[in-house]
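ok, trying the design again with the full structure, not the truncated one.
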């Protein structure tokens, strides 16, 4: 959901920490993105509501999406596999990748006349 709603790369999603989310300004701080630059992107109200439900259940401490090992985050491959499984369950026959979600985010912004 964050990859699509915020236009994030899969590496950006898995490396998110709790403090990277600014709930008041509806912004996500992406640290060390492509080119090792820090960037900001939008945090939609819908994504924020889903994250609130996620926090209630999983109560992450440091990483937003912790990995199986202590002090580690989820791997990009795990996210890719989750998307593959979800696509199959939804009956989507077309190949979908996490990067497809990023492209869709940009396409929908352009369709809404947003200057990228």
């Amino acid at each position: 959901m964050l990859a699509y709603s915020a236009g994030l790369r899969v590496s950006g999603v898995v490396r998110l920490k709790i403090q990277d989310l600014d709930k008041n300004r509806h912004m996500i701080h992406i640290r060390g993105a492509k080119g090792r630059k820090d960037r900001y992107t939008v945090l939609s109200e819908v994504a924020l509501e889903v994250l609130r439900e996620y926090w209630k259940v999983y109560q992450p401490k440091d990483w937003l999406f912790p990995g199986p090992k202590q002090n580690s985050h989820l791997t990009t491959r795990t996210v890719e596999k989750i998307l593959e499984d979800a696509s199959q369950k939804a009956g989507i026959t077309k190949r979908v990748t996490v990067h497809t979600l990023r492209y869709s985010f940009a396409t929908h912004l352009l369709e809404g006349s947003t200057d990228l």
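Keeping the full-length input from now on. The chain has one domain: 2-111.
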